[in-house]
Amino acid sequence: MNSNKTFNLEDRTYEFARDCRFLVRDLSKSISNIEDGKQLVRSSGSVGANYIEGNEKLGDKDLKFQEKKPKKVNIG
Q1: Are 38 and 55 in contact (CB under 8 A)?
Q2: What InterPro entries would the database entry show (predicted)?
Q3: What is the pTM of this model?
Q4: How far, in Å, CA of 51 to CA of 70, rounded?
Q5: What's the confidence (pLDDT) of residue 3?
Q6: For 27-57, what is each residue's pLDDT tens digit?
Q7: Which residues of 56-68 are buried (b: 16+ CB within 10 A; e: fewer)?
Q8: Which of 48, 55, 20, 12 is nearest to 36 (CA)?
């Protein structure tokens, strides 16, 4: 992996959420796809929101807490 690469996580989480919305829009309209799609849209947006909130930290403990929040998302 090239160590000179910069990763803008805000842009990447935005693109992830946008791509999830495009995916959900193109799914067939079955009950399971609708329900799973709702959850995917909510959770994909939460990842970026939690990252942004984590960058506006009050201290190191707050950042560690915020970094753990996306891992607690219950899928299923």
Answers
A1: no
A2: 23S_rRNA-intervening_sequence, 23S_rRNA_IVS_sf
A3: 0.62
A4: 9
A5: 57
A6: 999 999 999 999 999 999 888 888 887 777 6
A7: eeeeeeeeeebee
A8: 20
